[in-house]
Specification:
The chain has 679 residues and is mainly alpha-helical. Among the domains are: 105 residues, Tetratricopeptide repeat domain (Serine Threonine Protein Phosphatase 5, Tetratricopeptide repeat, Alpha Horseshoe), CATH 1.25.40.10; 113 residues, Alpha Horseshoe (Serine Threonine Protein Phosphatase 5, Tetratricopeptide repeat). The protein has 33 helices and no strands. It is elongated and about 145 Å long. 24% of the residues are buried. It comes from Podargus strigoides (Tawny frogmouth). It is found in: Cytoplasm; Endoplasmic reticulum. This is Signal recognition particle subunit SRP72. Keywords: Coiled coil, Cytoplasm, Endoplasmic reticulum, Repeat, Ribonucleoprotein, Signal recognition particle, TPR repeat.
Length: 679
C-alpha cells in the first residue's frame, strides 16, 4: 500500500512540476521536485529538474553543489551543459571550458556556450570559427543573436588586436549590429564613419523600443547609454573634450546598472582631467572599483584603468600608493613599458633623476625589445638635467633609429647647440652610409643603384650644414654626388658653383657653362598676381578705365605727377618777423650758451606765494624785535609810510595762495560732474 501510495504521490508531484515549468514558476516547481527527491533521493530526472530550477532562479552556486554532490548519478554526459553554464555564470571560465571539452557529445547548446566562453577568454580567432560553424549549421529563431555575437567578435578583434575586420556581409537591421560595426570602425581609426553608425544605431534603438508601450523614456535612455558612451569616446579621440565630458556626465546621472559601462566612463573622465580637477578624479575612481567590474571588461581595459590609478596617485602626491600600484602592474606584465615609466616619473617628481635613469637602464638591459622607447625617455631626462652630450650618446646607442631623419635632425641640432660640429657631421655620415648599404643590398643585381628620396635629402641637408659651418670642401663632395644623381638639377648646380667660387674659381667658371642661358629659361611669373599677393610689400595701384576727356587729358599731361600741398606751419603768438629767431631755441635752457644759472639770495617781492608760514620781502620791516628801544606794541616814529604800504597784508595764518578759490571751484565742479549719489 505504501509503495502504491508513494507512486501516486510522485505522479501528482510530477504533474505539478510540469505545470509550474510551463508557467515559468520555478520556485514552486523546486518545492515539488524536493518532495519527489524525498521519496526517491537518487532519481536522475528529479535531480536534473532540481538543477534546472536552481539555474532558472539564479542559484548557480547551489546548482553546481547539487551536481558535484551527485557525480555518480549525474554523469558528465547527462549534465555537462548545466555544469558548464553554472561555472560560466560564476565566472569560473577556465573550468567551464574544461567541462565543455570533456563532454562526450558536443550538442548545439554546448557549442553556443563554447562560443561565449571563448569570447570571455579573449580567444577571438577560435570564437569566430565557432560562431561561423553555428550559423552555417543552425536554422532557428536565434540566428539574429548569433550574427550579433559574430559581429561583436569582429569588433573586439579590430579594437584589441588591431586586426583588419573582414566584411561579414551582415545586414545591419538592428541597433546591436550597427553598434558592433561602429566599434569595429573605431578600431580602424575611422571615427567619422563610426559616429554615423552610432547615430543610426541610436535611431534604430528608439524605433524598436518605442513600439513597446510598456517601455518608458527613462528605459530608452538607459538602453541608449552604451551608445552615447561610445559617441563620447569618439569625441574624446577627436579632441572635443568638453563635448565628451558633458555627455559622460549625462550618462553617469542616469545611474545605469551596467557597472562595466560606468567604470569605462569614469576612467575616460579621469584621462580628460589628467593632473587637473583631481578631487573629481578621486570620486570617479570609486566607480572603477565596483564589484563585478573585472568580469565585465577586457584585460586591456582593466589594465588601462590600473595604469590611470597609478598616474592619479602620482598627481595627488601619493608616492607610496603610486609605487605600490606600478610595482603590481610590472609584476603582472614584466615587459610592459608603462609601469616602469610611471615609476621613473614618480622618482623625477621627487628630484631623484639619477635613480630614475638607473631604473630605466636596468629595464632596457633586461628587455632589449623595448629598449628604444626606454632610451628615448632616458635621453629626455638627461636633457632636462642639462647633460646634452650624454643624451646624444644615449640616442646614438639606439641602432634601429640612427638612420631615421627625425633622429638625425635631433642629434645634429643638439650637437650644434653644444658647438660640436664634428660629431654632427659624423651623424650625417653614418646615416648616409646606412642608406648606401641598404640600397646596395636592395639593388644587388642592378648595374645602376638609385638613391632613395630620404637618402638624397640627407645628403643635401649635410651639404647645407657643412656650407653653413665653413666645411666647403666636404660640402662640395656631397653636392657633386647630388648633381651626379640628377644632372638637370639647376639648384644643386648653382650651389656647387657657389661653393667652388670660394675654393676653386676656375672650376666654378667651368661648371657655370652647364647653367642654362637666360633665353632658354622660361620664367612664367604673373607679375600682377605677385604684386597683389599677401606678402608683397609694394602693390601697384590698378589703373582705372580712361574715358574720352580723361584720356586726352592724361595724354597731354604725360607723366606729370601731382604735387602734394604742404601745410603751413603754425607760428608762435608773439612772433615778430623783424626779429631774428634764437638759433638755440630748440635746446633746453641749461644747454644754451647764454645760460648763467639761477641767482641765489634773491627772493620774490610778491606777497601771498609760497607755503603757509613763509616770510616775504616786507616782513623784515614789520619785525618789531629789530628795534631795541621800542616795546613790541608801540610803533616807531616815522613808520606810518611803512604801515600804510603794508596795511593790506594778511597775516600768514589767514593767507591763501593765489588762485586757490578758482582751483577749489574747479574741483567742486569735477566732483559734481562725476558724482553718482549715495552717501
Amino acid at each position: 500500500k505504501m509503495a502504491a501510495g508513494g507512486a501516486g504521490a510522485a505522479a501528482a508531484l510530477w504533474s505539478e512540476v510540469n505545470r509550474c515549468g510551463q508557467n515559468g514558476d520555478f520556485v514552486r516547481a523546486l518545492k515539488s521536485v524536493n518532495k519527489i527527491l524525498q521519496i526517491s533521493k537518487d532519481d536522475v530526472t528529479a535531480l536534473q529538474c532540481k538543477v534546472v530550477c536552481l539555474i532558472q532562479n539564479g542559484n548557480f552556486k547551489e546548482a553546481l553543489g547539487v551536481i558535484n554532490t551527485h557525480t555518480k548519478v549525474l554523469t558528465s554526459d547527462i549534465i555537462a551543459f548545466e555544469k558548464a553554464y553554472c561555472e560560466y555564470r560564476l565566472n569560473r571560465i577556465e573550468n567551464a571550458l574544461k567541462t565543455i571539452q570533456s563532454a562526450s557529445q558536443q550538442t548545439d547548446k554546448l557549442k553556443e556556450l563554447y562560443g561565449q566562453v571563448l569570447y570571455r577568454l579573449e580567444r577571438y580567432d577560435d570564437c569566430l570559427a565557432a560562431y561561423r560553424d553555428l550559423i552555417r549549421n543552425s536554422q532557428d529563431e536565434y540566428e539574429e543573436e548569433r550574427k550579433t555575437n559574430l559581429s561583436a567578435v569582429v569588433a573586439a578583434q579590430s579594437t584589441w588586436e588591431k586586426v583588419m575586420p573582414e566584411d561579414l556581409g551582415l545586414r545591419e537591421a538592428t541597433y546591436e549590429l550597427c553598434y558592433n560595426s561602429a566599434c569595429a570602425l573605431i578600431g580602424q581609426g575611422k571615427l567619422n564613419e563610426a559616429m554615423k553608425k552610432l547615430q543610426k544605431a541610436e535611431e534604430l534603438c528608439r524605433q524598436s523600443l518605442s513600439e513597446d508601450t510598456d517601455v518608458t523614456e527613462e528605459d530608452i535612455e538607459a538602453e541608449l547609454a552604451i551608445i552615447h558612451g561610445q559617441m563620447a569616446y569618439i569625441m574624446q579621440l577627436q579632441g572635443r573634450t568638453e563635448d565628451a565630458l558633458q555627455l559622460y556626465n549625462q550618462i553617469i546621472k542616469l545611474k545605469p546598472t551596467d557597472v562595466g559601462l560606468l567604470a569605462v566612463i569614469a576612467n575616460n573622465i579621469i584621462t580628460i582631467n589628467k593632473d587637473q580637477n583631481v578631487f573629481d578624479s578621486k570620486k570617479k575612481v570609486k566607480l572603477t572599483n565596483a564589484e563585478g567590474v573585472e568580469h565585465k571588461l577586457s584585460k586591456k581595459q582593466l589594465q588601462a584603468i590600473e595604469f590611470n590609478k597609478a598616474l592619479l596617485a602620482m598627481y595627488t602626491n601619493q608616492a607610496d600608493q603610486c609605487r605600490k600600484l606600478s610595482a603590481s602592474l610590472q609584476s603582472q606584465s614584466p615587459e610592459h613599458l608603462l609601469p616602469v615609466l610611471i615609476q621613473a616619473a614618480q622618482l623625477c617628481r621627487e628630484k631623484q633623476h639619477a635613480k630614475a635613469v638607473g631604473l630605466l637602464q636596468d629595464f632596457a638591459d633586461q628587455h632589449p625589445a623595448n629598449a628604444a622607447e626606454i632610451k628615448l625617455t632616458m635621453a629626455q631626462l638627461k636633457i632636462a638635467q642639462g647633460s646634452v652630450t650624454k643624451a646624444c650618446m644615449i640616442l646614438r646607442s639606439i641602432e634601429e633609429l640612427q638612420h631615421k631623419p627625425g633622429m638625425v635632425s635631433a642629434l645634429v641640432t643638439m650637437y650644434s647647440h653644444e658647438e660640436d660640429i664634428d660629431s654632427a657631421i659624423e651623424v650625417f655620415t653614418q646615416a648616409i652610409q646606412w642608406y648606401q648599404q641598404f640600397q646596395a643590398t636592395k639593388y644587388a643585381c642592378c648595374v645602376f643603384q638609385p638613391k632613395s628620396p630620404v637618402h638624397l635629402s640627407l645628403i643635401r641637408e649635410a651639404a647645407n650644414f657643412k656650407l653653413k659651418h665653413g666645411r666647403k670642401k666636404e660640402a662640395i663632395s656631397d653636392l657633386e654626388e647630388l648633381w651626379k644623381q640628377n644632372p638637370k638639377d639647376v639648384h644643386t648646380l648653382a650651389q656647387l658653383i657657389s661653393a667652388y667660387s670660394l675654393v676653386d674659381p676656375e672650376k666654378a667658371k667651368v661648371l657655370s657653362k652647364h647653367l642654362p642661358s637666360s633665353d632658354t629659361m622660361s620664367l612664367k611669373v604673373d607679375v600682377d598676381a605677385l604684386e597683389n599677393s599677401h606678402g608683397a610689400t609694394y602693390v601697384r595701384k590698378k589703373a582705372g578705365k580712361l574715358t574720352g576727356d580723361n584720356q586726352q587729358k592724361e595724354q597731354g599731361q604725360g607723366d606729370v605727377k601731382k604735387k602734394k600741398k604742404k601745410k603751413k606751419g603754425k607760428l608762435p603768438k608773439n612772433y615778430d618777423p623783424k626779429v631774428t629767431p634764437d638759433p638755440e631755441r630748440w635746446l633746453p635752457m641749461r644747454e644754451r650758451s647764454y645760460y648763467r644759472g639761477r641767482k641765489k639770495g634773491k627772493k620774490k617781492d610778491q606777497v601771498g606765494k609760497g607755503t603757509q608760514g613763509s616770510t616775504t620781502a616786507g616782513s623784515s620791516e614789520l619785525d618789531a624785535s629789530r628795534t631795541a628801544s621800542s616795546p613790541p606794541t608801540s610803533p616807531r616814529p616815522g613808520s606810518a609810510a611803512a604801515l600804510s604800504a603794508t596795511s593790506n597784508v594778511i597775516p600768514p595764518r589767514h593767507q591763501k595762495p593765489a588762485g586757490a578759490p578758482a582751483t577749489k571751484k574747479k574741483q567742486q565742479q569735477k566732483k559734481k560732474k562725476g558724482a553718482k549719489g549715495g552717501w
